[in-house]
Amino acid sequence: xxxxxxxxxxxxxxxxxxxxxxxxxxxxxxxxxxxxxxxxxxxxxxxxxxxxxxxxxxxxxxxxxxxxxxxxxxxxxxxxxxxxxxxxxxxxxxxxxxxxxxxxxxxxxxxxxxx
Length: 115
Known about the structure:
The protein is mostly helical. It has helices spanning 7-17, 21-27, 29-43, 48-51, 53-80, 91-108. 4% of the residues are buried.
């Protein structure tokens, strides 16, 4: 399987293949490198998590199932406990439910850098 292109490798390739570009970098490194970085990152393919919607949907569905199962399990264990005793809900059930809810919130919340 071929490795995905990396921006640093593409930047080096472009620097070495474009005639006169190294001289521009020597004269004005900051602005030239910033322009090159913008060009290189614009030409790279988008990451897989942006283009592969099915993987994202499967993860959200699996986390949703864990949330519902943990909540349902806690409710069930509380319901079958006798009236005078406190329900014995395992800590792992609470931890799974809380982690799944947190992961869903992180996945579904809009990115602060998105416009």
